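Ops channel
N.P.: pipeline sanity check, posting one input/output pair.
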């Protein structure tokens, strides 16, 4: 039965934040060392930096100043997250914009592996499914690298989303106008099937992906020119009305050199055309796979609304990616945490419950501070 975590008891239970953090402890000693620049001593080690990012994304802080005030004044944050001597605004900004990216990528990969091995797998009969899409993040005027228009700055996160386990996978960062199609091979691993919308339709890419032995299910425009090479039997009374081997495009201009399977189906009066190189599944399964692409849209919406993607607390491309990785790492930790304690997927109700537990524990610590050795064990980290 799923269990409900109670507020922290200083004598018997780890703090809720430490419960969330536990998956990192499994590989903590393997994280690459964070190096200082020149002869300057680090004001914040990597563990403190990562924990502060997790706290920022988990809570609803309004700015970097708000976070730093919590690290300075909150009993729990001061004991278990902040550097013992504290951290100033300029030092924290320098840390985010210049250090920790290598270590964050390492942690992200390790947590993905843990979540993949831990979380239940849905739709296993369809294989490893990865929805691929990009989402725009509003930037500020000083972020000149985030080119989008003459008056607007936006950055774009390109993500592969593990449909079967409901977790983020590989990611790339571009400016707001960054092309999506060429990034597909970087977001897919061998054996996975990429699921994409019409923005990824490109005959040259369809050929290239097949040459690279990458599987895909990609919606195409209804107006796409199609040359039929072979038709396949259709089930009676189903949604599918078309299933054939075809070449796409005009032979005199731009056409696929390698044929693809094209499945056509209707749902609620709306017609869909999907190109794929999956021949091992039924046409109905191909239709289902494309329907599952919606999961990445739901993830982007939930992530932006509930895990403090805004405000931006780092402005350089390096720092922006540090903040994004901090948010995605927080989501992976929540996915492992919710499955371990409640056998559930991540939900805002569980996030709120965790926030309340952390706040309650902070109040209790004000009256029952941990002993020095207990505090030292959790506040210390690798230099």
């Amino acid at each position: 039965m799923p269990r409900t975590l109670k507020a922290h008891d200083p004598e018997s239970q780890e703090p809720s934040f430490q419960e969330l953090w536990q998956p990192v402890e499994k590989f903590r000693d393997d994280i690459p060392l964070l190096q200082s620049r020149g002869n300057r001593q680090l004001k914040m080690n990597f563990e403190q930096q990562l924990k502060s990012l997790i706290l920022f994304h988990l809570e609803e802080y309004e700015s970097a100043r708000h976070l730093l005030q919590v690290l300075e004044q909150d009993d729990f944050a001061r004991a278990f997250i902040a550097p013992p001597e504290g951290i100033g605004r300029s030092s924290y900004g320098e840390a985010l914009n210049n250090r920790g990216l290598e270590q964050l990528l390492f942690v992200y990969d390790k947590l993905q592996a843990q979540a993949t091995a831990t979380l239940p797998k849905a739709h296993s009969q369809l294989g490893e499914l990865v929805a691929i899409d990009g989402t725009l993040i509003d930037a500020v005027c000083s972020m000149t690298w985030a080119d989008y228009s003459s008056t607007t700055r936006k950055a774009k996160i390109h993500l592969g989303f593990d449909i079967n386990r409901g977790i983020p996978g590989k990611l790339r960062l571009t400016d707001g106008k960054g092309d999506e199609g060429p990034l597909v091979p970087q977001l897919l691993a061998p054996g996975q099937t990429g699921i994409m919308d019409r923005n990824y339709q490109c005959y040259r890419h369809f050929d290239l992906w097949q040459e690279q032995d990458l599987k895909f299910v990609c919606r195409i425009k209804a107006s796409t020119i199609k040359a039929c090479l072979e038709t396949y039997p259709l089930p009676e009374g189903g949604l599918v009305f078309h299933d054939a081997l075809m070449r796409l495009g005009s032979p005199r201009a731009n056409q696929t050199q390698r044929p693809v399977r094209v499945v056509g189906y209707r749902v609620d009066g709306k017609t869909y055309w999907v190109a794929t190189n999956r021949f091992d599944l039924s046409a109905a399964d191909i239709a289902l796979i494309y329907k599952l692409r919606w999961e990445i849209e739901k993830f982007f919406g939930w992530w932006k609304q509930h895990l403090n993607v805004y405000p931006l607390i780092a402005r350089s491309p390096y720092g922006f990616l540090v903040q994004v990785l901090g948010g995605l790492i927080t989501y992976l930790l929540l996915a492992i945490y919710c499955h371990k304690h409640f056998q559930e997927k991540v939900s805002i109700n569980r996030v709120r419950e965790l926030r309340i537990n952390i706040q309650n524990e902070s109040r209790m610590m004000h009256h029952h501070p941990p002993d020095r050795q207990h505090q030292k064990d959790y506040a210390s980290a690798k230099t």
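N.P.: looks fine end to end. The mean pLDDT is 88.
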